[in-house]
């Protein structure tokens, strides 16, 4: 695994395992399988209602807690300082952990700075190791950064070959904030696995279209958190660090950029 260095010196795996619709006992087994495959970065959220099974999987795995990187997020029911403070404690309890590696404000809420104040307090108390935001475009991020005291370590946003948001990445770079992308495979909005240019580039490297997508994002300095229920696909998604896309190949992929969200964001 390769890592990004966050603005507070922490290391975050470039590739993590997304859990947005992983539920129940079967979901717990899926997370355990991801650990077996080699994932050490798990992305969850209060909104996903699955922190408890993530905590159970961590406990059952026997992996040292310090060898894992766990991200969670607080959404609208926690949109105040007091509610966010309580939400952090709830997440710690459900994750069965003394600390959270990264906690994010899930969306651009009017009370986002109040939520972030609770996160800053938890950060200073050692209950969370890094704090950040999610789904903030460049304008909203700049306004947030102007007022937040501690610059977010991460902004997690929609990012895939049809909307990589490389301009936003440049903005975040100027603040020392790491961009991390969700929906690397577009969550079915586009059939990236049948995209001719991705198939062609993948064939030249002995890789799949999905691996080309993940490599393109990582090579552009964007973290990725793909999800799969299948062990074979989990392994495939991790196997992206043994090849490099050429400048010509990257230019071909850049032409897929439609310049707009596929999910109605931003």
Short recap of the structure:
The protein has helices spanning 24-37, 51-61, 81-95, 112-124, 138-147, 166-175, 196-205, 209-219, 231-238, 247-254, and strands at 3-5, 11-13, 17-18, 41-43, 69-74, 102-105, 131-134, 154-158, 178-182, 223-224. With 266 residues, the chain is an alpha/beta fold.
Explain what this protein looks like in three dimensions.
It is a single chain. With 266 residues, the protein is of the alpha/beta class. Helices cover 41% and strands 14% of the residues. It is built from 10 helices and 10 strands.
| Rg of Cα set | 18 Å
Alpha plus pi helix count: 10
Across the major sheet, the strand order is: 3-4-5-6-7-8-9-10
Distance between the termini: 31 Å
Largest sheet: 8 strands, parallel
Blueprint of the fold:
Blueprint: E1 3-5, E2 11-13, E3 17-18, H1 24-37, E4 41-43, H2 51-61, E5 69-74, H3 81-95, E6 102-105, H4 112-124, E7 131-134, H5 138-147, E8 154-158, H6 166-175, E9 178-182, H7 196-205, H8 209-219, E10 223-224, H9 231-238, H10 247-254
Parallel strand pairs: 3-4, 4-5, 5-6, 6-7, 7-8, 8-9, 9-10
Antiparallel strand pairs: 1-2
Helix pairs in contact: 1-2, 1-9, 2-3, 3-4, 7-8
């Amino acid at each position: 695994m390769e890592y990004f260095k966050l603005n507070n010196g922490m290391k975050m795996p470039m590739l993590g395992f997304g859990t947005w619709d992983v539920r129940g006992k079967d979901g717990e087994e899926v997370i355990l399988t991801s650990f077996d495959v080699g994932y050490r970065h798990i992305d969850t959220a209060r909104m996903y209602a699955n922190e408890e099974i993530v905590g159970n999987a961590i406990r059952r795995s026997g992996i040292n807690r310090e060898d894992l990187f766990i991200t969670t997020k607080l959404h609208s029911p926690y949109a105040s300082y007091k509610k966010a403070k309580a939400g952090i404690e709830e997440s710690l309890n459900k994750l069965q952990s003394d600390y959270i590696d990264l906690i994010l404000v899930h969306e651009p809420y009017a009370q986002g700075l109040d939520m972030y104040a609770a996160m800053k307090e938890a950060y200073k108390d050692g209950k969370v190791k890094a704090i950040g935001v999610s789904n903030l475009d460049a304008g909203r991020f700049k306004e947030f950064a102007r007022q937040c005291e501690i610059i977010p370590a991460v902004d997690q946003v929609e990012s895939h070959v049809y909307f990589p948001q490389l301009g936003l990445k440049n903005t975040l770079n100027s603040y020392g904030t790491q961009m991390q992308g969700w929906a690397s495979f577009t969550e079915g909005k586009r059939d990236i696995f049948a995209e001719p240019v991705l198939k062609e580039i993948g064939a030249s490297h002995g890789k799949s279209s999905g691996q080309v997508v993940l490599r393109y994002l990582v090579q552009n300095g964007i973290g990725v958190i793909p999800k799969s229920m299948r062990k074979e696909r989990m392994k495939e998604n991790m196997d992206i660090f043994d090849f490099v896309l050429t400048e010509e190949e990257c230019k071909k992929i850049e032409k897929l950029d439609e310049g707009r969200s596929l999910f109605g964001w931003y």
